[in-house]
Amino acid sequence: MHAILLAGGLGTRLRPLTDHTPKCLVPINGVPLLDYWLDLLLPNGIDAVLINTHYLPEQVAAHVANSRWRDRITLSHEPELLGTAGTLLRNRDFVGNKPFLAAHADNLTRFDLRGFLRAHANRAEGVVATMMTFDSDLPQSCGIVELDDNHIVTAMHEKQPNPPGTLANGAIYIFDPSVFATIRTIDNPMPDISTDLLPLLMGRIQAYHNATYLRDIGTPHSLRLAEQEFPRVLARGAP
């Protein structure tokens, strides 16, 4: 399976840390965020990774050139951001006619990747996407999801002040290639996965719960929390 890491954002909420560093290279306990992703994905069932770039792309390119995984990484530069779903559509040839993983690479996470892949392989008929969920301690800052008894996503509540619960979209997905046809129908020059694509897939998305660790490091506060929490996650021998 191939993976697309969405890493082109500006990281404005992390300024001044991101004034001169792209968000995907912000260090957590001395290790750039992108390296955590590569070390999670590439030994555990992902054959190749595509990373989209936009902000400070030369730094990402230099980092990848020095990575031990460089031969399995493709960079796709966007002079103008395409939107997260637009990035998927642009790189449909990279993933081919097979399911693929797509993730917002501004999250710090650990999870059982092989279990995630198995869950999608064993999906029910009609399911075209598997969404990773997690329990959020800041649900108003997330997309909160509702599930039926078969763990099918039936509703989403994007960044609402009083969401109905804490079960959140982790912004890590496995998509069937059939979603490209759906993206083409979106009337938005910068189509977004969360706000444009997922609503069109309601009833056809299954949830896979990450009970190990996931945190968006989008603010200085959440970055500090990640630096405190993540060493304990690794010490437990998390996947």
**Do you know the CATH architecture?**
Alpha-Beta Complex
Q: Give me the secondary-structure category.
A: alpha/beta
Q: Could you tell me the radius of gyration in angstroms? A: 17 Å
Mean pLDDT: 92
Strand/helix succession: EEEHEHEHHEEHEEEEHHEEH
Q: Tell me, what is the CATH class?
A: Alpha Beta
First CA to last CA: what distance? 19 Å
The percent of residues in helical segments reads: 25-40%
Question: How large is the count of helical segments?
Answer: 8
| Spatial strand arrangement across the major sheet | 5-4-1-6-11-8-12
Give the DSSP E fraction (strand runs of 2 or more residues): 25-35%
Specify the CATH homologous superfamily.
Spore Coat Polysaccharide Biosynthesis Protein SpsA, Chain A
Q: Assign an overall shape.
A: globular
CATH topology: Spore Coat Polysaccharide Biosynthesis Protein SpsA, Chain A
Could you give the count of β-strands?
Answer: 13
Instruction: Write down the domain tally.
Output: 1
Could you describe the largest sheet, including whether it forms a barrel? 7 strands, mixed
| Low-confidence sequence ranges | none
